[in-house]
Write a structure and sequence with these properties.
354 residues; alpha/beta; Alpha-Beta Plaits; TIM Barrel; 12 helices; 15 strands; binds phosphoenolpyruvate; binds manganese (II) ion
Amino acid sequence: MIISLKPDASDHEKEKLFEQLHLLEHNCFYTGIYGQQSLVLSKSLNADELKAISASPAILKITPVNKEYKLASRTWKDSPTTFSVKGQCIGGKAINIIAGPCSVENESQIFQTAEYLHKLGIKFIRGGAYKPRTSPYSFQGLGKEGLRLIRKAADEFDLRVVTEVIDSSLIDEIYEYADILQVGSRNMQNFFFLKQLGKIDKPILLKRGMASKVEEWLNAAEYILSEGNGKIILCERGIKTFDNSMRNTMDIGAIPLVKHLSHLPVFADPSHGTGRRNMVGPMALAAIAAGADGIMIEIHPNPEKALSDGTQSLYLEQFKDLVEKMDKLAALSGRLTDNQVKIVTTQKTELCVE
Ligand code: PEP
Ligand code: MN
């Protein structure tokens, strides 16, 4: 249950309401999110309690939400969440394309990629500087030097940086260099970490845990929301199933499902979702057809030499062909990819309602 408060409710009125809820032994979490002050209750009020509480002059409306996640649900907020990242709208009518290598490897690799993306009109670059690898002996990323390089390349080519934060101790460092902080599949249920990310003001791209149910994924988003950060992008990246013929099983059905359950933008990562270069294009298109708000793709100037995930990385030319297809499909769905959006104020307002 969520109690939305009137914007002009006095401190006294709010305190009285808190007191009443406290006496009824209701745990309530205060949050100011999407310009709305709200109290989230972990359990619903019964009919008598509801009657008593409803009399409070501080209350705007009470929304029953019979799921564990509440602020992430469409029951509470029906309008799709949109926000801008340095002038690029996330969600709404836009389809954002994020591309780049799995890992930042050296200056020439990341600059070559950034220049290519810029020529195609792409606005977001990805690249890991701290890599969560299965084996401790695999390439772990360049660390801070990787962050410096991807930031430098992005600034030169009008790109926004998406990079993974693998640990709480790195939040401040990544915050300095990234425009969107990625939470990897392996960290989706690291709740303490999620809470900390809820306290920052930059967007979080929350990958679905590789063995997580949709409900668990939305609860992970709830951890971030409950601490006040409403700029969340959910990203489907494939799950483990009985079938091991691909690296993961891309759960395309989860895209329309999550868009139905939640107001948050939903992206898809067909690179990790399939693990195979020749499956990435078809799955990217399938995700757009299914209603994805954005696509994240691994590309590399020389995939054979990649230090991580080369087999799923597209060649730059291959990516260019896919972008053309994604543009056409987006237009058919009444949407625009970033590279098609000319940033003029009117369109920006229409695309990104903040
Ligand atoms: C990645 O995007 O580089 C990555 C490690 O993804 P995931 O967390 O989905 O495995
Ligand atoms: Mn990767």
